[in-house]
């Protein structure tokens, strides 16, 4: 018995640094945030519970609703675009052409660079007289005033996020493509399937778990978009690009409404959880393992 | 026939010449598309470099002219001296280095316990780690701030390190890898009287270089590119990291895009150099962890 206890003790010693840190800096904040979401705490005065007041307030909060709608717009457009482009890109990269390594390095580059820095670069490219509009002006009369227009600011943000994310997912998908056994294609060819049919009936089904994984990852991160917004629009013009995390940040660290902001952060958590659950529920219809 | 040329869906009779022609046409087409995408991916960086060598008047005037006629190299010293850029480099490096070392050490130790040792409640505690991974950082952001304030760590780098250090991803990643190492190795070492720590340090870690490398890259990038935490915690300019430094510079020089581009170039140089040298590990790390996740 004594010998066993010593074994456990050794194991706990290995675990301890991580577990203590996780408890103090992650687990405790998760619970504290839940408790705070039922208070109107400003971070200084004594904490007062106000029940579900914050959550009721959120229903009536115009800016919060707008930030939610904006975020769903951003997610609904940027995630499908990112996934479609990365699947196409992965297929192209899977072609055994020379110099593919160089392309891979270049495609992945936007992903390693800081979102704040690339946001700054793109916001200078999206200026009214900037290079993007100079190109567009070759084709149409009045190019949009991207970041200055409440109609076009979000599409600009979406373009940047697709540009930044596509390489990352393409590389994950490429690894999945390379895992598809060749005999599947050979069998399909014998059955008389052309390239398009092979794509629909072999590539997509076999790749579907990876596409599924990428979609979830892209969705989760799309609900957490922040850096790009700060660098490019600061939520504007007006509230046109005010998204969830941007609104949470402002509520917590500019208005110091810690309780209210915590309630929002839990709504964010619930949205992410629901999106993940819905995806897992519906995956049976299109994901094949 | 191994190429996935989805865009080409015609069924042409399979005769030798035709196939050859189709194949070379196809690879030409592939190259063309790949090249266009590559240009789109790199263009913003080229534009940044080019803009950083122009002046306020010419930066938008001849956007198409990517190689400026009179490159204004003095934009760089101007940027370098107008904000403490050297400090930004040092601060970012220090925070990223310490965060990475700390993450790898604590994660590896915990992962070893989860993968190779037995203790009561092991699987339940590991489940807790996984469940924590599902929770977005924004949920912990506010209480972490209050906690750091109570610990007197506002406006310090320690706060930035502590909020990143205990992310459960590292434990998860390394545990999955350690599980693939056969137990026979550590068992025979144990019979020879090796302590658990020596087994961990001398046997398991050297066999896990690939996974450790992935975690190092992940952690370095994550800390280096972190923006929201430095934004929340730092108010002293001398403590700024590159990311808040860039943001600060953007606010300071709102319309001077040529200077902003020079500052952005300076901020991106280190990460791009590291990436170009270690790109193999970056890309392999992402594709393997991506699939396992």
From TrEMBL, chain A:
<feature type="transmembrane region" description="Helical">
    <location>
        <begin position="105"/>
        <end position="125"/>
    </location>
</feature>
<dbReference type="GO" id="GO:0055085">
    <property type="term" value="P:transmembrane transport"/>
</dbReference>
<keyword id="KW-0813">Transport</keyword>
<dbReference type="InterPro" id="IPR051393">
    <property type="entry name" value="ABC_transporter_permease"/>
</dbReference>
<keyword id="KW-0762">Sugar transport</keyword>
<dbReference type="Pfam" id="PF00528">
    <property type="entry name" value="BPD_transp_1"/>
</dbReference>
<dbReference type="InterPro" id="IPR035906">
    <property type="entry name" value="MetI-like_sf"/>
</dbReference>
<comment type="similarity">
    <text>Belongs to the binding-protein-dependent transport system permease family.</text>
</comment>
<dbReference type="InterPro" id="IPR035277">
    <property type="entry name" value="MalF_N"/>
</dbReference>
<keyword id="KW-0812">Transmembrane</keyword>
<keyword id="KW-1003">Cell membrane</keyword>
<feature type="transmembrane region" description="Helical">
    <location>
        <begin position="12"/>
        <end position="38"/>
    </location>
</feature>
<feature type="transmembrane region" description="Helical">
    <location>
        <begin position="152"/>
        <end position="177"/>
    </location>
</feature>
<dbReference type="InterPro" id="IPR000515">
    <property type="entry name" value="MetI-like"/>
</dbReference>
<feature type="transmembrane region" description="Helical">
    <location>
        <begin position="198"/>
        <end position="220"/>
    </location>
</feature>
<dbReference type="GO" id="GO:0005886">
    <property type="term" value="C:plasma membrane"/>
</dbReference>
<feature type="transmembrane region" description="Helical">
    <location>
        <begin position="258"/>
        <end position="280"/>
    </location>
</feature>
<keyword id="KW-1133">Transmembrane helix</keyword>
<protein>
    <submittedName>
        <fullName>Multiple sugar transport system permease protein</fullName>
    </submittedName>
</protein>
<feature type="domain" description="ABC transmembrane type-1">
    <location>
        <begin position="68"/>
        <end position="279"/>
    </location>
</feature>
<feature type="transmembrane region" description="Helical">
    <location>
        <begin position="72"/>
        <end position="93"/>
    </location>
</feature>
<keyword id="KW-0472">Membrane</keyword>
Automatic annotation (TrEMBL), chain B:
<keyword id="KW-0813">Transport</keyword>
<dbReference type="InterPro" id="IPR035906">
    <property type="entry name" value="MetI-like_sf"/>
</dbReference>
<keyword id="KW-0812">Transmembrane</keyword>
<feature type="transmembrane region" description="Helical">
    <location>
        <begin position="25"/>
        <end position="47"/>
    </location>
</feature>
<keyword id="KW-0472">Membrane</keyword>
<feature type="transmembrane region" description="Helical">
    <location>
        <begin position="126"/>
        <end position="147"/>
    </location>
</feature>
<feature type="domain" description="ABC transmembrane type-1">
    <location>
        <begin position="89"/>
        <end position="278"/>
    </location>
</feature>
<dbReference type="Pfam" id="PF00528">
    <property type="entry name" value="BPD_transp_1"/>
</dbReference>
<dbReference type="GO" id="GO:0055085">
    <property type="term" value="P:transmembrane transport"/>
</dbReference>
<feature type="transmembrane region" description="Helical">
    <location>
        <begin position="95"/>
        <end position="114"/>
    </location>
</feature>
<feature type="transmembrane region" description="Helical">
    <location>
        <begin position="257"/>
        <end position="278"/>
    </location>
</feature>
<protein>
    <submittedName>
        <fullName>Carbohydrate ABC transporter membrane protein 2 (CUT1 family)</fullName>
    </submittedName>
</protein>
<feature type="transmembrane region" description="Helical">
    <location>
        <begin position="199"/>
        <end position="221"/>
    </location>
</feature>
<dbReference type="InterPro" id="IPR000515">
    <property type="entry name" value="MetI-like"/>
</dbReference>
<keyword id="KW-1133">Transmembrane helix</keyword>
<comment type="similarity">
    <text>Belongs to the binding-protein-dependent transport system permease family.</text>
</comment>
<keyword id="KW-1003">Cell membrane</keyword>
<feature type="transmembrane region" description="Helical">
    <location>
        <begin position="159"/>
        <end position="178"/>
    </location>
</feature>
<dbReference type="GO" id="GO:0005886">
    <property type="term" value="C:plasma membrane"/>
</dbReference>
């Amino acid at each position: 018995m004594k010998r066993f206890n010593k074994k456990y003790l050794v194991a706990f010693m290995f675990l301890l640094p991580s577990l203590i840190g996780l408890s103090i800096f992650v687990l405790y904040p998760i619970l504290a945030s839940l408790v705070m979401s039922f208070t109107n705490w400003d971070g200084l005065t004594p904490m007062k519970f106000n029940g579900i007041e914050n959550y009721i307030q959120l229903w009536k909060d115009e800016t919060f609703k707008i930030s939610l709608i904006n975020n769903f717009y951003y997610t609904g457009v940027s995630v499908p675009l990112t996934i479609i482009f990365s699947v196409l890109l992965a297929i192209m990269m899977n072609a055994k052409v020379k110099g593919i390594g160089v392309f891979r390095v270049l495609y992945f580059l936007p992903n390693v660079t800081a979102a704040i820095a690339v946001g700054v670069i793109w916001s200078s490219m999206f200026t009214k007289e900037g290079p993007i509009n100079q190109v567009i002006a070759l084709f149409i009369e009045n190019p949009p005033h991207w970041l200055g227009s409440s109609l076009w600011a979000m599409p600009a943000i979406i373009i940047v996020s697709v540009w930044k994310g596509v390489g990352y997912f393409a590389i994950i998908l490429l690894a999945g493509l390379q895992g598809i056994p060749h005999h599947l294609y050979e069998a399909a060819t014998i059955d008389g399937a052309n390239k398009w049919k092979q794509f629909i009936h072999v590539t997509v089904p076999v790749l579907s778990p990876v596409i599924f994984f990428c979609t979830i990852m892209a969705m989760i991160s799309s609900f957490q978009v922040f850096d790009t917004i700060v660098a490019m629009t600061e939520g504007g013009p007006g509230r046109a690009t005010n998204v969830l995390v941007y609104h949470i940040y402002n509520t917590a660290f500019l208005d110091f409404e810690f309780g209210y902001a915590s309630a929002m952060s839990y709504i964010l958590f619930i949205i992410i959880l629901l999106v993940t659950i819905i995806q897992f529920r519906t995956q049976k219809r299109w994901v094949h393992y | 026939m191994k190429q996935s040329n989805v865009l080409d869906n015609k069924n042409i009779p399979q005769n030798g010449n035709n196939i050859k022609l189709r194949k070379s046409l196809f690879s030409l087409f592939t190259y063309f598309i790949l090249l266009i995408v590559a240009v789109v991916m790199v263009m913003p960086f080229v534009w940044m470099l080019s803009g950083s060598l122009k002046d306020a008047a010419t930066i938008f005037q001849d956007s198409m002219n990517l190689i400026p006629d009179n490159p204004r190299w003095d934009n760089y010293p101007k940027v370098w001296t107008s904000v403490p850029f050297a400090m930004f480099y040092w601060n970012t490096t220090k925070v990223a280095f310490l965060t990475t070392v700390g993450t790898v050490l604590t994660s590896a130790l915990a992962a070893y316990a989860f993968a190779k040792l037995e203790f009561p409640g092991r699987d339940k505690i590991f489940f807790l780690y996984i469940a924590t991974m599902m929770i977005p950082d924004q949920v912990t952001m506010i209480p972490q701030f209050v906690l750091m304030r109570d610990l007197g760590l506002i406006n310090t780098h320690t706060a930035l390190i502590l909020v990143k250090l205990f992310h459960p991803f590292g434990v998860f990643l390394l545990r999955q890898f350690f599980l693939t190492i056969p137990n026979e190795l550590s068992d025979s070492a144990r019979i020879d009287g090796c302590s658990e720590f020596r087994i961990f340090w001398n046997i398991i870690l050297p066999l896990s270089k690939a996974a450790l490398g992935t975690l190092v890259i992940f952690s370095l990038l994550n800390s280096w590119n972190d923006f929201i935490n430095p934004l929340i915690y730092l108010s002293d300019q001398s403590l700024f990291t590159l990311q808040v430094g860039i943001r600060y510079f953007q606010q300071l020089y709102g319309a001077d895009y040529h200077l902003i581009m020079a500052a952005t170039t300076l901020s991106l140089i280190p990460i791009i150099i590291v990436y170009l040298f270690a790109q193999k590990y970056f890309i392999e790390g992402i594709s393997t962890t991506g699939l396992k996740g």
